[in-house]
Each structure stands twice: as C-alpha cells, then as structure tokens.
Amino acid sequence: MTKHTRRTVRRWAAIGSAAALGLTGCASSGDIAADGSTVITYWMWDSNQMPGYRQCADDFQERNPGIEIRIEQYGWDDYWTQLTATMVAESAPDVFVDHTSQFGKFASLGQILDLSGYLDESDLDLGQYQEGLVELWAGPDGESQYGLPKDWDTEAIFYNAEMVEAAGYSPEDLWELEWNPEDGGTFEDFLAAMTIDENGVRGDEEGFDPRDVATYGLGYNEAGGGYGQVQWSPFALSNGWDYSDENPWGTSFRYDEEEFLEAVSWWRSLIEKGYMPPLAQATSGVGTQESLGAGAYATVIEGSWNALAFSELGGVDAQVAPTPIGPEGQRASVFNGLSDAVWSGTPHPDEAWLWVEYLASTECQDVMAETGRIFPAITTSSDRALETFDGLGIDARAFSVHVEDGTTALTPVTDQWAQLQTIMTPAMDAVMAFDAEPESLRDANARVNRLFDE
C-alpha cells in the first residue's frame, strides 16, 4: 500500500492558545505575535476566495491555540514576482498557494518542503481527493509530496443567455454542439449565428461584414502560449492530442503533432471569418468577463473558478454550457488544481504543516464549498459545491461533466515550464497575429524539446 492511500493512527497534536486572524502587509516568516503565538503567514492571489479562507483560519485557530494565521493577498502577476523575491531574500511566506506551472521549478530548486514525512505521521486520507489531484504534486521520484490538493477546475462556455435565445438556440442545444477542424461542425454554425456586425447582420446571413463586427461569437484574452487553458485547449485535447509523452514530468512535448496544428489552424480561422476578434483587440486590456457583460462577446471559454463572478455580472444573464464534443466523440478540458505548499526556509515547519493539513481537510473544504467560488479537491466537498452552484442558478454540471465522463487531461507539470513558455508564448502570438503560420509551431516544439536534452 502506498503513502497515497494509507492511513496512520497518530495525528500531530494541536499547539498553544487562540489568536485573531490578521490581514497584513509583507509580514515576515518567523514572526511571533505579542501574546507569544507563532505567526504563520499564508499567501494567496484570488481575492474572491479570501472570505472563505479567513473562516478556515478562524476555525483552525480555535482548534490550534498558539498559532496565528496571517493571510496576505496579491494579484496574479505581482504574486509570483513577490514570491520569487522573498524566496531569494529568505523571507518567503511560511505557506502559499501553489500552481502547477510553478511547482516544478520550486521543487527542483529545493524551495518547498517534501511533506511525505508529515503524511506518514498523519491520518489524512489521500484517497478522499478527486482522482489524479494528489499525483499532480508528487516529485519525479514518485515518493516525495510537495503539496496537498485544495481544489480542481475545468473549463466551460459562458454565454449571454438573451443572445443565445435571440439566435434561436436553447440551453439544451448547447450541450449537443460538436466541432471538427474541417468545417467547425455545429459549434462553428453556432458561433456564426451568435456573431453580429455593426449593421445587425449575423455571421450566417447574407451581407455579413467580418471586418466590422459589433458582437463576436467567441471571445478570448490571449493566444494561450503553451498551455491554452481557456483558449485552444478544449479543441486540441478533443482532437486526440495531449501535451507531452507523460504527465507529470514529461520530457517530450507535442506541439508539432497534426492534431494540435489542425486545432490551432481552425481556431485561428475564426478570426478570419469574423467570429472571433483579432489578437490585438483581444489583448487590448479589456477582459473577457467585462466584454461579455458589455455585449462585445456572446460567448467565452473560461474556468470554473470564475463561475460565480460571471453569474454576478450586472445587466446580463450569463449562463454556462460545456465545451463542444470533438472529432474523437468526446468533449475535453484541462483538469487543473491548486495546492498549498510549505516554504523550505520556514522557521516553523511543524506549525506550517498543521495549517496545510487543515486546509486539505473536509472541515475547511466544506467551508469553501459553501462559498460558491471553487470545486474543492475532496469529492464529498465537491458534491456540496455542486449544490451551492445549483442554488445560485449556475449549471455546475457543465464543469463536472468532464470529471464524470473522464474527459479531462491533467495540466502539464515540468521543472522547465517557464523556459517552455518563453518559446511557446511568442510562437503562439505570432501565429494568432498572422505573422507566422501554424506550421511554424513545429520549430517551436523542437526548441522546447531541446530544453530537456540539456
């Protein structure tokens, strides 16, 4: 029996006396509160999730008097910049939210703790999480464990319900849409009907002007680099493609395969047809959420982490449907998840572990399920989140159908991800800006794979 399934009989003892939760600015790891409590700093980037994790911190502190949790939140880009800088300065947060795109780098540089020793002494059941999530945070040796799963996400189509109805489609119709790289299938027909030019002519009507569009059928925010999570991934993955030879820790990437090039070529063709905006317009600074709310986009592909935010858009009834069925006869989505990691330089590893263990527990993940912001990693907590979403009028099955039907692909994990993106981001940008042809990605892929020969 492996460490991913076994239970042990002893739990770490709770420590100390209660202290209040604080939101601080750049508190240093190793702080001791005025009352003598050990301070554990915890960093995250999503402000929408702050209330839920503040509640988890309050509950944790009641159970573990003598430990104070101080939460700090930064925007996505600033978060990673600050985290890198504090690691170099040896003042990083004790615990932080980790992402699969960053995890390999941190693990290879020895900047995060291997938690397997703590897991050996814990009765935390790793079999309670959605399948595949624990393995995302395992080291290349298959034995070390650098994080515990906190949530999972998949992608779906967010759409303006009034526009869909005006185009003659029902919500049920959207569940049946299919696409293929030859003619786009019924999904492309749908996008054409949802696109309207400045004269009120739809994309499937005579006289449509693709150079003067008022509402695009499908919006996006960038070319997607080597990940394409909310851009091209649902099409490439449902065309029988996957990122690399194995995952996690693949060493041979597949951006040169026909299935990928076909999907990218078709996706790019939507710009020429006027159903999707040019890259310069998509990256002009106005987000997909705001563009859907303003009527500039009729649909966008986005992640489950934004479901509640889209439902709260003022002036528009934003609903959700699953990604289209591909040539392989199945829809597809990246299956990603976040973890909580412990900085290897923390002066309080035992207390940091207690907090990570609690974040990975049913108690905390049930709290997060009630917020309607995430799908927690624990399966029973995920079920509670589905009920929460349903109560908010969000068809959460558009996300969970991928898990139920087994149509997910794990997000790629490698210690060379940052270097990979320095190659694939400009390469994809050039393709989507029509400065290069999709075939140019074969050369980009060769350069990516040379990273793993060095």
From TrEMBL:
It comes from the Bacteria. It is found in: Cell envelope. It holds the Pfam family SBP_bac_8. Residues 1-29 form the signal peptide. SUPFAM superfamilies: Periplasmic binding protein-like II. PROSITE patterns: PROKAR_LIPOPROTEIN. Belongs to the bacterial solute-binding protein 1 family. This is Sugar ABC transporter substrate-binding protein. It comes from Microbacterium betulae.
